[in-house]
């Protein structure tokens, strides 16, 4: 009897813990000061995500009107193949998206890409890309939705996936600009509706067991 009671209680507790919910955090850089920022920069109020440039210099907060949707993060310059890296300090994540701009048609070719690559402990997890629409407006979004991962890179490349490494003409130099960085954040455990139903059944079973125990105690002896 004690074993069945313990099993029912354990099942109810496990079901309550299973309904974990996720919220989304959005970083838009509006609380940051325009200008150069140091390697390991975090947006104001968001220490859980730190940024680096691939070459160790060139990160900036800028406001470039429609190219940046207000303030945004960029990696200078368009002549050295620099790009943006991000590292989460609060553990692993499973969703990441961001808007990007500065896809100037003068400095791009049809088929050029924005590429988002994610990693876990330094190992490649996956990669996705979006073809630049080349309108020089921050109106495109790129996302990765199948973690876990704990870091990422964002870069512009040519149609074959090769990074831009030089300047002076189309397809050879482009400054990455990203904004509205959105990622999942573990929030308080909230049971799903199905979990509530199973919990009720579990507690009902516990109640039934307790009632049977009381009936057995109260029943007259047949000896």
Mean pLDDT: 77
Helix content: 10-25%
Radius of gyration: 26 Å
Reading off the top of the CATH hierarchy, the class of the largest domain is best stated as: Mainly Beta
* Tally of discrete structural domains: 2
CATH topology of the largest domain: Jelly Rolls
Shape by Cα distribution: globular
Give, in order, the helices and strands.
HEEEEEEEEEEEEH
At the fourth level of CATH, the homologous superfamily of the largest domain is Protein of unknown function DUF4465
Give a description of the structure:
The longest helix is centred in the C-terminal third of the chain and has 26 residues, at 193-218. The protein has 223 residues and is an alpha+beta fold. The protein is globular and about 40 Å long. It folds into two domains: 22-186, Protein of unknown function DUF4465 (Jelly Rolls); 191-222. The protein is built from two helices and twelve strands, in the order αββββββββββββα. The relative contact order is 0.22. It starts with a helix and ends in a 5-residue tail after the last helix. The strands form two sheets. Strands 1, 2, 4, 5, 7, 10 and 12 form a seven-stranded antiparallel β-sheet that branches.
Q: Can you give keywords for this protein?
A:
35% strand; 7-stranded antiparallel beta sheet; single chain; 5-stranded antiparallel beta sheet; disordered N terminus; 223 residues; 2 domains; alpha+beta; disordered C terminus; Jelly Rolls
